[in-house]
Specification:
Helices cover about 25% and strands about 15% of the residues. By secondary structure, the protein is an alpha/beta fold. It has two domains: about 1-195, Ribonuclease Inhibitor (Leucine-rich repeat, LRR (right-handed beta-alpha superhelix), Alpha-Beta Horseshoe); about 250-295. It has a nine-stranded mixed beta sheet with strand order 1-2-3-4-5-6-8-10-11, with no helix packed on it. The chain has a three-stranded mixed beta sheet with strand order 12-13-14, with no helix packed on it.
């Protein structure tokens, strides 16, 4: 797209009113109008706004609201702006993504949520944004990503999770992205434990998808308490994890053992009860002999 020449004050105000730009975004130094096919883009950046200004043109396709103090995306935002293809939400104060945030975002292809305060990604966080091609989540405070966080994102090609607080990441979350071509994981405090072994194996198989290579990703060795790049590790580094059990596996084994023990006790009690009842109800041999003598 090409940016329009700078408008005069009167022309700028006329354009604002015609496009329906939010009052908070008005002013030649705070908003911009672009010629994009087929609809214009709107920008409202670096204003320190505490919430998403409203309304923008309903047919806007590219929206730039970076550099504000916005803490949440309204639940009905994409219901009104369902034509959005590009949303730049960088450098705001988002702390979480509520359920249903992206309902109605069927056309959204590029989403930039980097430089926010996100801490967790729940299951189906982007469920309705099935056409996303690029998702930027770098430079947040992400400490956990649910294994179903990226479900339905079958078109996603670029995922950026760099510079967060991730110690581990479920491979299932990445396996849900069949079109993935580029993945950034650098800048996280990865822990080289047995939970990381599965992710390390995935990374080795998909090294071509890492734009900065294995050297850019580091993890901490639990025993030696030092950080090493993944380029220095191999499958042998996690050999002791092959026969280790996860916490879930231990719970399953313990539960199974307890269940079998309870079933055995119940079966023994039932069998003993049946035997005792049989002994009480069945006539003894001595009694039968006495009855035969009396008959003689």
């Amino acid at each position: 797209f090409t940016q329009q020449p700078r408008l005069g004050w009167v022309e700028a105000r006329s354009q604002e009113l015609l496009l329906g730009l939010p009052h908070a975004c008005r002013g030649s130094s705070t908003w911009a109008i672009f010629h994009c096919f087929p609809s214009p883009s709107a920008g409202c950046r670096d204003r320190g706004l505490p919430s998403v200004p409203d309304p923008f043109p309903l047919d806007v396709r590219k929206l730039l609201v970076a550099g504000n103090r916005i803490q949440r995306i309204p639940e009905d935002f994409f219901i009104f702006y369902g034509d959005l293809v590009y949303l730049d939400f960088r450098n705001n104060s988002l702390r979480s993504l509520e359920d249903g945030t992206f309902s109605g975002s069927a056309k959204l292809a590029f989403l930039d949520l980097s430089y926010n305060n996100l801490t967790q990604l729940g299951a189906g966080a982007f469920r309705s944004a099935g056409r996303l091609v690029k998702l930027s989540l770098g430079n947040n405070r992400l400490a956990g990503v649910h294994e179903a966080a990226f479900e339905t994102l079958e078109s996603l090609q670029v995922l950026e999770l760099n510079d967060n607080r991730l110690h581990s990441l479920s491979v299932a979350a990445l396996d849900a992205l069949p079109a993935l071509r580029s993945l950034r994981l650098d800048g996280n405090p990865w822990l080289c434990d047995c939970d990381f072994a599965h992710l390390f194996a995935w990374i080795q198989e998909n090294a071509s998808k890492l734009p900065k290579g294995l050297d850019a990703i580091q993890c901490s060795l639990p025993v030696e308490n030092r950080r090493v790049s993944l380029h220095e590790l191999s499958e042998a580094s996690f050999s002791e994890c092959r026969f280790s059990l996860s916490l879930t596996d231990l719970f399953i084994i313990i539960f199974s053992g307890v269940a079998v023990s309870i079933a055995a006790i119940i079966s023994s009690f039932f069998l003993a009860t049946v035997v005792q009842c049989f002994q009480r109800c069945a006539p003894s041999k001595d009694t039968e002999d006495e009855d035969e003598d009396e008959d003689d």
